[in-house]
Amino acid sequence: MTAATPAAPRLTRQGAVAALVAGVAQDLHAAAEIHALLERQFQAALRHRGAELAQLAEELTPALDAMDARRRQRVALVRALHGPDATMATFIATQPEPGRATLAANWGELERLVVACKGATTRNGNLLAEQFTTMQRVLHGGDGTYAPR
């Protein structure tokens, strides 16, 4: 016979608010670290440092997974507090001062960092794809790059 697993503790409204505020702060810190890793990834790709690229991928994956888990929790908590169509803007608007201004500033900065990370990811992906295409042409002579003219 197996023992029943204890039910997860239910959050109070105050606990949910605290978790939301803490999650935004954690994501703000994580997004800054992820952006720095993406910048290192770009430099490693420019210099064709394969081992460093692999190490950076190993660092990025868990950081992104953790950030996504906090995002999912944030969405669930905001919806539990304010309804199925609620957003972070809804949540922030309901918070008392002085915390609301700090939360709004942190959320704005997090949104800015996420956009910067998406841009860096696109840039890095484009560079790696271009390098891959170039190597394929060099190795397989796909477009006549080395053909006599």
Q: What would you say this structure looks like, in words?
A:
- By secondary structure, this protein is mainly α.
- It is 77% helix and 0% strand.
- The protein has four helices and no strands.
- Helix 1 packs antiparallel against helix 2.
Describe the structure in brief.
The chain has 149 residues and is mostly helical.
- Helix and strand composition category: mainly alpha
Which overall shape is indicated by the principal axes computed on the Cα atoms?
elongated
Order of helices and strands: HHHH
- By DSSP, the count of extended strands is 0
Flag low-confidence runs. none
The major sheet is characterized as:
none
Mean pLDDT: 90
Number of helices: 4
Radius of gyration: 22 Å
Q: Topology of this protein?
A:
Elements: H1 13-46, H2 50-82, H3 88-93, H4 99-140
Helix pairs in contact: 1-2, 1-4
How would you describe this structure in keywords?
mainly alpha, 0% strand
